[in-house]
Amino acid sequence: VMLSRRACVSLLRVMRAGEKHRLSIGQKRSGNEEGPLHDGPDFHFADGRPGMISPGAARALRRDARDQRTIAALSQESFERNERVEKQVARDQALIKAEQEERKSRAAAAAAEAKKKNKSSTSSPATKTNTKGSTPRPSPS
């Protein structure tokens, strides 16, 4: 089946000027889909009452309200999670500090014990070693 040139062209998706770029940077496909002129009411009555809201504007208001609730819930959840993490970090730092102090006290006790052993070994009869490292000889007293 042979398609005419017109049929082939109509099957392709037409990209408007700049649409691809706007979509790539996270904006809407058209430059006029949001903003004060688009989001605001179309008219108001002479006595100041607002005009009727179009279905699209009502949909946008509902979407915005839903997004605001989602953002508030996520912000609260994030805040609570940060508080829990900060408390856990404080507990971990306290445990680390306690472990370091325990190690220091053990090291001090071991040093004191070693010093005590050194004193007890030097209090035995005095002996001198030969400079060549042979057998010890009694010191002249």
Q: Describe it for me?
A:
The chain is mainly α. It has a two-stranded antiparallel sheet with strand order 1-2.
Radius of gyration: 42 Å
The ordered H/E elements are HHHHEE
Strand-pairing-aware structural class: mainly alpha
**Beta strand count:** 2
Helix content: 55-70%
What average pLDDT do the residues reach?
A: 80
Shape: rod-shaped
Lateral strand order in the biggest sheet: 1-2
Contiguous runs where pLDDT drops below 50 for at least 5 residues: none
Cα(first) to Cα(last) distance is 126 Å
Largest pleated sheet: 2 strands, antiparallel
Total helices: the number is 4
Task: Describe this protein with a few key phrases.
mainly alpha, 60% helix, 141 residues, two-stranded antiparallel ribbon, single chain, rod-shaped
Outline of the structure:
The protein is mainly α. The chain is 60% helix and 3% strand.
Task: Give the SSE layout.
Layout: H1 5-11, H2 19-24, H3 36-39, H4 55-122, E1 127-128, E2 137-138
Antiparallel strand pairs: 1-2
